[in-house]
Design brief:
The structure holds three protein chains of three kinds. By secondary structure, chain A is of the alpha+beta class. Helix content of chain A is 31%, strand content 15%. A five-stranded mixed beta sheet of chain A has the order 3-2-6-4-5, sandwiched between helices. Chain A is elongated and about 55 Å long. Chain B contains twelve helices and 14 strands. Chain C is an alpha+beta fold. In chain C, the strands form seven sheets. In chain C, strands 3-5-1-12-9-10-11 form a seven-stranded mixed beta sheet, sandwiched between helices. In chain C, strands 7-15-14-13-8-29 form a six-stranded mixed beta sheet, sandwiched between helices. Classes of the chains: A alpha+beta, B alpha+beta, C alpha+beta. Chains A and C meet through strand 1, helix 2, helix 3, helix 4 and helix 5 of A and helix 1, strand 3 and helix 18 of C. Strand 1 of chain A pairs antiparallel with strand 3 of chain C.
Chain lengths: 176, 289, 801
């Protein structure tokens, strides 16, 4: 066995340059130094350890990494952390109450069995949260709901129960 | 799927941005990033430097005056789509933008980025060609205006030179007595169009007096369907005229077979969408007169 | 007993954590100091590697090591053939890192380990590989010809083996038939595309000599066994954990993908944790796929539509390697007769090597292809004999009173003879016909046609052999401190709701509240024995094992409670987390009982203190723990099915086709399914609907495409068209429940059911819709708009000619 081409001393840090960023995440001020190429999704997950934001494709198709940037839902895999300097970001960790009480959208997902593996779920919740924030009385026709959900992939549920959860979310939020 | 390393600058003026781009052919402006960043994540693109335009306020905003809608290049798709004044001036804009990807992507993608990216299947370049719009480009030598018809050169290629920046889109307001429509066929909702047609049809006294048609997805650039327009003007937009317009559109298909559609299918789509789109526009023209 | 939890729509225990974003998927697990792996993958489908130069990569700042096949010691071997078969005469499996040759685009050639994934990818691109390309044949039918280039030089015609499945006397059936139909169908390659790609992390502890593996696998125990064998470490020194896993659908049952052995290896080398988080492109080029088969199927029938015999000869694309044996083709070939009597059939098939990533089961596992072949042929037979498509099925069903219905000599993937245990096929057909208003539809269709709209009705029936053995186990243990009921089993969970349905089963026996039952799986430390989650087997195998273990625990609880409450066992009832003396308010909680049954009595908490207030749980006069007794409330049991149990169902859809745009609009989709007794109908519906959406993907959207050189054309989510909510129709799901006699709970599997018939339903409906145009029969899936266009164009050209 010749052994690999390996270093005697193992590296601990990336050699990339670091740029300071300062932003607000879930209401808290965050300051870090990051590589310019660090994707916002990786920043949220690995720098901030907010791992509820998932990564499914890293090319903007699946929607797993959806977060809210400055009041609008966005794909965090299609932004660099440096672009979020000065921004206000909200992630799935900020949706339930401080005691863990589920938000109406989360409650609706549970009631309607709108999640299975749960990997895509935070992205859906964030996209629906954004949708209902900007359109609190949405069209509840099946086609309109599917249109609103289009942009997030789910491989487990076949969407039927997510459509139901969208409808139920609106009901629960009206009641809230 | 992590991007290669690059230098990063986020200037707050157009001048600084032009300076940051100058002299580095591999530097790229970064607008909404919805096409560039995926390309970088695949490492299909590896710019030496990204010049982030997000801090440049002068590149934002929507203004409606003098019969045109002026849209700053860094305006997000969703902002333009939801802009009441723009919609009042030309309702085709929102109809087209509703087909661009999904809301979450439109929240971040910019109109300037979409135009400069110049995907031949994209909807916004098709809108610009159909409406006869233009863009304002700024460079080291000052501003210049490029008409939509001269802007799109080839697949992902425009007349914007390296070192220049797209400043603004100008989309004409809807002319009087004119109906509009945009229809496309995509494999999935939000996908790029296999073919899409944009129609503006002016109807006076039951006759078509003017028509502007453009298609996306069928060639190396968005294309104006001049022969189809000619087949409509002067007619009562009867079925036979629509069929002639469709047949003319069919001939403009030059895209070669790809994974999702062969040329034959695209030709059928171009014809059918042209017929349907013109009919839909004509019906709206009737409603407005 | 109080209200049964079995059969109830209990909301899932797993949901709140996942909904709050608190799940722990592998890349969510923080392993301080972890290094990250990336792979150099072949860009050529078939080539000889002239050289691999890793020097520039290894010199890059932040890189810990670059490995090629020369650097991995004893791991430089062909990985195991998991399921050998006597007729699989020319099996091939891959090495962790290519040696000498590469066999598909995406094959691992070198592994980079670096400080983070960004740098690892930088370095991977610096590895220079020089290839001498070899010729390839990508066409499955041409690949078996004598002059086709061989993927493996010692495998002539690229055929891994010749297989025969036969029952009855098919030659006689064909000789005696009034009518024979013969068609050729093709189903394309697809991929499971779980939204969490595969992921792997390993931490070697040099002090204790223990290895902890986090693997997004469906088979923790098998991975443990395999790694113990490959590394020569005791199984007890390896712990394999599959935490939250973002979907599997079969892709994560396959082991070993190269990273599964190389990441632990690197961790041992560096004494640091190492992670490999597969990205989406890697999932497309490096992770198992399934589906391409070409069937030439023939049915021999009487004039009245009775099918006497079937012959099917098919080619099965297995990719460049066949590590999972012939499971996919075997499941398909043995299911070929579907719900029909068809007393005689002969299936011959050949797994064929193509220079593509390996084929192993993806949800459906050969059944969608077999169903498509059979049901397309049956539609054709109906049309040619002028018999209604429903009626011809009715005439061939195995009758409800004809079960068990064995198929002599047909050996299923569990190694046992196919033997349908129960079914009510005609009832299902009647039901779907009623639900979709089969009779009313023809009038609607005529009206629509008069308006220039084209509606079609399609239908597909399937059976699914589920609940394959050999066995699973379960341990039920009541925690003395909290009274929580722990249920451990050897499975893994990718979102199927095991934690809820198994809790329901255990709750019914122990009287615990469902919320108080904690199911532990996906951890080799949780339960030592078992197989894995695949083949729609979890509810059947583990469900019944847990049921049996919980019934044993129940007997322990009852005995202890009777002693403690000084009542007769017959007078004890278990409910609401306690044992009650019937008709009184005297009770002992499960926590108290669990404490009292343990002779060690520290008064840790209230339950422990109060447990001492009761009479002793044991009436033994001897030592505190009587001879032959175990402390606490704990029971283990196993369930091993006598053979597979056969679920079934029928789907029907009304589809409108726009002949101008060649697009489809699914107006209605009805699914009748029967998986025996349902533990939780809500979960069952979720499984059915999820499978159905994947079926819809396979029917109309999804296809892994390759060019003539074997280069993937759509290894991304932009061009591999996984449906969004807008592409999946709403589905009306109707349950039937025909219990199986093969297990105590009467359950059959449901995981794969929804996927199976969808391509047939779509093809059948579109064919019906476009009948006025005289299109040719539809024999290929997926059916794309472009394909519809071509069908119409050919029909029009034919009409003009």
């Amino acid at each position: 066995m010749t052994g690999p081409l390996r270093r005697r001393r193992l590296p601990m840090r990336s050699p990339d340059p670091a740029i300071p960023v300062s932003l607000t995440v879930n209401g808290e001020r965050v300051e870090r130094e990051v590589s310019p190429r660090l994707l916002l999704s990786d920043f949220i997950r690995h720098e901030l350890r907010l791992t509820g934001t998932h990564v499914g494709c890293e090319h903007g198709v699946c929607g797993c990494c959806t977060v809210i940037i400055d009041g609008r839902a966005a794909r965090s895999c299609l932004a660099f952390a440096v672009q979020a300097d000065g921004a206000e970001i909200r992630t799935i960790e900020d949706v339930a109450g401080p005691d863990g009480a589920l938000h109406p959208i989360q409650q609706a997902f549970r009631e309607c069995h709108a999640l299975q593996c749960g990997y895509c779920t935070p992205g859906f919740v964030m996209a629906i949260l954004d949708h209902l924030t900007h359109e609190p009385e949405p069209d509840l026709d099946d086609g309109a709901i599917r249109e609103a959900l289009s942009g997030n992939l789910c491989r487990c549920t076949g969407y039927k129960n997510i459509v139901a959860a969208f409808r139920r979310s609106v009901e629960l939020m009206r009641g809230a | 799927m992590k991007p290669a390393l690059f230098d990063y600058a986020a200037p707050s003026t157009v001048e600084d941005a032009l300076a940051a781009l100058a002299g580095d052919e591999d530097a790229r402006p970064l607008a909404g990033g919805q096409s560039l960043i995926p390309a970088m994540n695949f490492r299909l693109a590896a710019p030496s430097k990204l010049v982030d335009l997000r801090r440049i306020d002068a590149l934002r905003g929507i203004a409606v005056d003098d019969g045109a809608i002026r849209v700053g290049a860094m305006t997000r798709h969703r902002e333009l789509e939801c802009d009441a004044a723009a919609d009042a001036a030309n309702p085709l804009i929102a109809e087209v933008l509703g087909h661009v990807a999904h809301i979450v992507v439109r929240n971040r993608g910019t109109v300037g980025g979409s135009i400069a990216h110049a995907d031949p299947a994209a909807e916004l370049p098709c809108l610009l060609v159909a409406t006869g719009g233009e863009v304002v480009v700024c460079g080291p030598g000052g501003d210049r205006t490029i008409a939509a018809g001269d802007l799109f050169r080839f697949h992902l290629t425009t007349a914007i030179e390296p070192g220049e920046l797209l400043r603004e889109l100008r989309i004409p307001a809807l002319p009087p007595d004119t109906g509009w429509a945009f229809q496309e066929v995509a494999r999935r909702r939000g996908d790029f169009a296999l073919a899409g047609v944009c129609a503006l049809v002016t109807v006076v006294g039951g006759r078509c007096t003017a028509a502007r048609l453009a298609a996306c997805g069928i060639a190396a650039t968005p294309v104006r369907l001049a022969e189809a327009e000619a087949a409509l003007i002067g007619t009562a937009l009867d079925a036979a005229s629509l069929a002639r317009a469709g047949a003319a559109a069919r001939e403009r298909v030059t895209a070669s077979d790809d994974l999702h559609a062969g040329t034959g299918y695209r030709r059928s789509l171009a014809a059918a969408l042209t017929r349907r789109c013109v009919a839909a526009a004509a019906a709206r023209a009737g409603e407005r007169s | 007993m109080s209200t049964m939890q079995f059969g109830e729509r209990i909301l899932r225990n797993a949901d709140p954590v996942l909904l709050r974003g608190e799940g722990s998927f592998i890349d969510d697990i923080d392993l301080p100091g972890a290094l990250h792996a990336a792979f150099v993958r072949s860009s050529a489908a078939r080539a000889r590697i002239r050289s691999v130069d890793t020097r520039a990569a290894a010199a890059l700042d932040g890189v810990a090591a670059v490995y090629t096949c020369d650097d991995i010691g004893d791991l430089d071997v062909e990985l195991p053939l998991l399921i050998p078969h006597p007729d699989l005469t020319r099996p091939k499996t891959q090495r962790p890192l290519a040696r000498g040759d590469v066999y598909y685009v995406g094959q691992c050639i070198a592994m980079v380990v670096a400080v983070d994934r960004y740098v690892a990818e930088d370095a991977a691109r610096l590895v220079e590989v020089v290839y001498d390309p070899l010729p390839v044949e990508m066409d499955l039918e041409k690949a078996v010809s004598d002059d086709a280039p061989c993927v493996h030089p010692d495998v002539p015609n690229n055929v891994a083996g010749d297989f025969l499945v036969e029952t009855g006397d098919p030659d006689r059936a064909f000789a005696e038939a009034d009518h024979v139909v013969r068609i050729k169908v093709r189903v394309e390659r697809s991929t499971a595309a779980p939204l969490e790609c595969r992921a792997m992390a390993a931490r070697w502890d040099a002090v204790t000599g223990e290895m902890t593996i986090w693997d997004s696998t469906q088979a923790t125990l098998s991975v443990r066994g395999g790694l113990a064998s490959l590394f020569g470490i005791d199984e007890d020194r390896i712990r394999v954990i599959a935490p939250n896993v973002g979907g599997g659908f079969g892709q994560k049952i396959m082991m070993f993908h190269p990273d599964e052995v190389l990441v632990p290896f690197a961790s041992m080398q560096f004494d640091r944790p190492v992670k490999f988080i597969e990205d989406r492109v890697e999932n497309f080029v490096g992770a198992s796929q399934e589906r391409t088969q070409i069937h030439e199927i023939a049915l021999a029938a009487r004039r009245d539509g009775t099918v006497l015999g079937l012959k099917d000869d098919f080619l099965h694309d297995t990719g460049a390697f066949i590590p999972y044996g012939i499971a996919v083709a075997q499941v398909g070939s043995t299911s070929i007769a579907g719900p029909y009597r068809i007393p005689s059939f002969r299936v011959t098939f050949r797994p064929v090597y193509l220079p593509l990533v390996q084929v192993t089961p993806y949800r459906g596992c050969g059944r969608p292809q077999a169903c498509y072949a059979l049901e397309r042929a049956l539609d054709r037979l109906a049309d040619e004999l002028g018999i209604d498509r429903l009626e011809i099925r009715r005439r061939n069903f195995i009758a409800e009173d004809a079960f068990p219905y064995p198929r002599e000599g047909v050996i299923f993937a569990d190694g046992l003879q196919v033997n349908y245990d129960s079914g009510a096929y005609e009832k299902a057909l009647d039901r779907v016909s009623r639900e979709i208003d089969f009779d009313g539809f023809r009038a609607d269709q005529a009206t629509a046609r008069a308006e220039g709209r084209y509606l079609g009705l399609g239908l597909g029936f399937y059976v699914e052999g589920t609940g394959l053995g050999p066995y699973e186990g379960g341990r039920v243990k009541i925690h003395p401190i909290t009274g929580k009921v722990y249920v451990n089993t050897g499975l893994t969970n990718q979102g199927q709701g095991h934690e809820t349905v198994f809790a329901q089963i255990a709750a019914d026996q122990t009287g615990a509240r469902v919320d108080d039952v904690i199911v532990v799986e996906g951890d080799s430390a949780a339960f030592d024995w078992g197989v894995a989650t695949f083949a729609s087997r979890a509810a059947v195998c583990s469900g019944n094992a847990i049921h049996k273990a919980a019934a044993k625990a129940r007997r322990i609880i009852l005995a202890a409670a009777a002693n403690m409450l000084e009542a007769a066992e017959e007078d004890i009832e278990l409910r609401d987390g306690a044992a009650w003396v019937v008709g009184t308010n005297r009770s002992a909680s499960l926590a108290e009982i669990a404490t009292a049954t343990n002779p060690l009595r520290y008064a840790f908490n209230e339950a422990a203190a109060s447990a001492t207030q009761f009479a002793p749980a044991s009436r033994s006069d001897g030592p505190p723990l009587a001879e032959g007794c175990a402390p606490g409330v704990e029971a283990v049991d196993y369930f091993s099915p006598s053979h597979s149990t056969w679920a079934f169902g029928v789907h029907a859809a009304v589809i409108e086709v726009d002949p101008d745009l060649c697009t489809i609009d699914v107006k209605r989709y009805v699914c009748i399914h029967d998986c025996g007794r349902m533990i939780n109908p809500m979960i069952v519906e979720g499984q059915v609907m999820g499978g159905l959406a994947q079926g819809m993907g396979g029917a109309f959207y999804e296809r892994c495409a390759f060019d003539a050189e074997g280069v993937p054309l759509n290894a991304n989510f932009v061009d591999f068209l996984m449906p969004y909510a807008t592409e999946v129709p709403d589905v009306e799901i109707v349950h039937m429940e025909t219990p199986t006699p093969l297990n105590p709970l009467g359950v059959k599997g449901v995981g794969e059911a929804g996927t199976i018939p969808v391509a047939q339903v779509v093809a059948s409906a579109v064919e019906d819709a476009l009948a006025p145009f005289g299109i040719a029969p539809i024999h290929e899936a997926p059916l794309t708009p472009n394909a519809i266009h071509d069908l119409l164009a050919r029909a029009r050209a034919g009409a003009e000619a």
